[in-house]
Design a protein that fits this description.
Helix content is 22%, strand content 26%. The protein is an alpha+beta fold.
Length: 281
């Protein structure tokens, strides 16, 4: 059954969400790119108490987690709280995923209109911000103008606030048709999908400047960031393309090896002390 994605805001918009959909990879690969350790999926259908543990009282004290699944038509997806995108450890590793795959990012913070970014092999294919897009010639933009009450201007395509047919359900319907997107509605809304913790078990506090460009903010980049052997520090502009005054492929600056111990302060993540579900360590 093709449930599409036009129902997302009606079902999940009240609490907000961050949805990542990636074409052509396994759920385990997506989870690892989001920060999860391998073999740590928790299946509500086979783990007694899992739904209450993740969604009941006190769940806000847990480490960040994602609900992960497959669509059956080539896409893997992860649903998370909207705040996860602000974590420093997310910024650099996530770019590797977007450099080699088609990735759809939908973000609803409940405070601003939902934001959409679609990336293909490291390039932005289409995006929507504040109910508008500058991608005038993109097929989605043209269809929004033709069918959904959006208005085309020389500098972009924007929602007509006077129209009653320009909500995100319409945007998601047209997007879903164009990219072939669908989510299993009953499994998502019933939360009957595997959950996995994505927040680092060790919190790293970099205190270094980029050796290549002098930028003051460097980010952990690695597999789970469990310890010095698993990560390196990279410039915040690492693999960020086409930034003025930087190489077109992004700043190459990084710190690794023995030098890390001199520029990084590490501490155990205290949220992992709150895990009290049998079978979760």
């Amino acid at each position: 059954m093709n449930d599409g994605i036009d129902w997302l805001d009606a079902e999940l918009g009240a609490d907000g969400y961050s949805l990542t959909m990636v074409k052509g990879i396994a759920p385990e690969v997506l989870a690892a790119n989001l920060g999860a350790q391998s073999d740590t999926f928790i299946d509500p259908d086979t783990t007694p108490g899992a739904l209450e543990f993740f969604h009941g009282p006190g769940s806000s004290k847990l480490p960040d987690w994602a609900m992960v699944g497959e669509t059956g038509d080539g896409w893997t997806f992860a649903l998370e709280a909207p705040e996860v995108g602000h974590r420093d450890d997310r910024l650099a590793p996530g770019r590797d995923l977007r450099a080699h795959h088609t990735v759809v990012d939908l973000l609803n913070t409940t405070m601003d209109p939902p934001a959409v970014t679609v990336s293909a092999d490291g390039r932005t294919d289409w995006m929507l911000r504040e109910y508008g897009t500058r991608d005038i010639g993109h097929p989605i933009s043209r269809q929004l103008v033709a069918e959904a009450g959006f208005v085309a201007y020389p500098h972009g395509v924007y929602r007509d606030d006077a129209s009653e047919d320009t909500g995100m359900a319409t945007v998601y319907r047209i997007m879903g048709q164009h990219y072939g997107l669908s989510l299993p509605r009953a499994s998502v809304t019933g939360r009957r999908l595997p959950h996995v913790f994505t927040e680092p078990r060790v919190l790293l506090h970099p205190e270094a400047r980029c050796p290549a460009c002098g930028e003051e903010r460097m980010l952990p980049h690695g597999d789970g960031f469990r310890g010095p052997e698993d990560y390196r520090l990279v410039c915040i502009y690492y693999q960020v393309r086409d930034v003025p005054r930087y190489p077109s492929q992004g700043c190459p600056g990084e710190v690794s090896g023995p030098a890390l111990s001199r520029v990084v302060r590490a501490e155990p993540n205290p949220k992992y002390e709150n895990l009290r579900l049998p079978g979760i360590s």
